[in-house]
Amino acid sequence: MSGKTLTRADLSEAVFRKIGLSRTESATLVEMVLEEVCETISSGEAVKISSFGSFLVRDKNERVGRNPKTGEEVPISPRKVTVFKPSNVLKERILEAHSRKNRADNDDTYVPAEVRAAE
């Protein structure tokens, strides 16, 4: 894993470069989209983005936890949590990118499938 994290600024810059909006318009667009997603999730509704995934709000029941320092049992109250479920399309892209990287790391003579098929 590269350790690089995609930020709001990175998203705004990508919109600026790829779509051609001004930097201010790009930042505003990204903020508006993220705000809409946050408002929808906060209201308890799911957000489904085709070929990307779904953000869902789930109820967690009360359970017994344990204080790691003392070993004492502590009740954890019921709560709502946000979960992300990647789409099958995104899962496939991740697997493909991971397997490509592994092949490239393990084989100095790696040739992409498209090139091998053309030979």
UniProtKB/TrEMBL annotation:
The keyword DNA-binding applies. CDD domains: IHF_A. One of its GO terms (biological process) is regulation of translation. GO terms for cellular component: cytosol. Residues 100-119 are annotated as: Disordered. The keyword Transcription applies. Coiled coil: none annotated. PROSITE patterns: HISTONE_LIKE (PS00045). Belongs to the bacterial histone-like protein family. This is Integration host factor subunit alpha.
